[in-house]
Specification:
The protein is globular, with a radius of gyration of 20 Å. Helix 1 packs antiparallel against helix 2. By secondary structure, it is of the alpha+beta class.
Length: 350
């Protein structure tokens, strides 16, 4: 079982063909394929092409509707709500981002909620796009009211998803500041989608079904739970994201009966806040401060064993530069799963 390496363009074509075989329109296949491959280019493989089998499972079960399109269902002042209609989350998030940036340009800032959407992918992708337009963006995502894989601090029962959060701040002389991480020690995909469920995991990542520290991925997936990073501090961020992405958007929160909320497994709900820098301060002064601070950080003597002080977002930018020439390598076991999906749905991978 050998690893497989293709260029970014080849991986995008593979994704497009598979998605098209599910009845996905061409423009949507392009959006989703780009998102998955871009995550791999950035080194965030937990949100890359390995998601294809899990997406297919959602399509087969009727949880995702690949041909549907998102819609703005509420717009009041600088606030808006996008309904993904259970289509691919990437498409819904880009509609929400477009609406938010348009309103921020006009009014200075905007808040958008996205509900009833599939997995939205890597959050950094969206906040980076806002930063490229001289805007600051803050974002968080929950499981749309579904119970997830994460136990609260001090508890042993899984309730939340990994509730990732992201933010980006533009710069001129440097790449933008990009913060993007799960509120758990590691992303769920690194545990749930691990090709080897006997993969050892470090202490503090999760617990088994009895509440004891898990030692392999299987113990977390089979009745255990993942844990927030940083103890009670990470737990507070998990809960804040759940309240903003679930309660504020109307998608519903994990742990409660559905009631009037519509829920489907594998879905996401998100909140997004975008701020246009020019409406708050002088643009030139803003960039002088941002780039000046980044310059100062680069001048700081690194700690022993560390090459340099990094700005959040730089590791992903470096990974993208490396991947552009070397291509994207996927584990053999993951490739076999993707190829099996292609065979089942009739997509050719010649």
């Amino acid at each position: 079982m050998h690893d497989v390496t293709y260029s970014a363009a080849q991986w995008q074509e593979i994704c497009r063909r598979i998605l098209a075989a599910w009845g996905t329109p061409e423009d949507i296949t392009g959006c989703v394929a780009h998102s998955l491959v871009d995550a791999d280019l950035a080194g965030v493989h937990s949100h890359g092409v390995l998601r294809i089998p899990s997406y297919y499972n959602c399509v087969k079960r009727g949880w995702y509707e690949p041909a549907t399109r998102p819609e703005v269902v509420r717009a009041e002042g600088v606030m808006a709500l996008v309904d993904g209609h259970w289509g691919f989350g990437q498409v819904a998030m880009y509609l929400g981002l477009s609406v938010a940036m348009e309103q921020a340009r006009a009014q200075g800032m905007a808040g958008v909620g996205v509900v009833h959407a599939g997995h939205v992918g890597r959050l950094g992708e969206y906040v980076e796009r806002a930063a490229a337009e001289n805007m600051i963006a803050l974002m968080g995502t929950s499981s749309g009211g579904n119970t997830g894989l994460v136990a609260p601090y001090g508890g042993t029962e899984r309730i939340f998803s990994t509730n990732p959060i992201a933010a980006a701040v533009p710069a001129r002389a440097h790449p933008p500041f990009v913060m993007d991480f799960a509120t758990t020690v590691v992303a769920a995909g690194k545990i749930e989608l691990a090709s080897n469920q006997e993969m050892p995991i470090a202490p503090g990542i999760g617990i088994d079904a009895e509440g004891r520290p898990a030692t392999v991925a299987r113990e977390v997936v089979q009745g255990g739970a993942m844990l927030p990073f940083g103890g009670h501090k990470g737990y507070a961020l998990v809960l804040l994201t759940e309240l903003l992405a679930g309660a504020l958007t109307g998608a519903g929160v994990a742990g409660l009966p559905a009631g009037t909320h519509s829920r489907r497994p594998g879905s996401n709900a998100s909140f997004l806040i975008v701020i246009d820098v020019a409406h708050m301060t002088e643009t030139e002064e803003f960039y002088a401060d941002v780039d000046g601070l980044f310059d100062r950080l680069k001048q700081i003597r690194p700690a022993p064993g560390v090459r340099e002080v990094l700005i959040p977002g730089e590791p992903e930018a470096a990974a993208r530069s490396r991947s552009a020439g070397a291509g994207i390598t996927i584990e053999g076991a993951t490739w076999e799963q993707i190829a099996a999906v292609a065979t089942e749905c009739g997509a050719t991978l010649d």
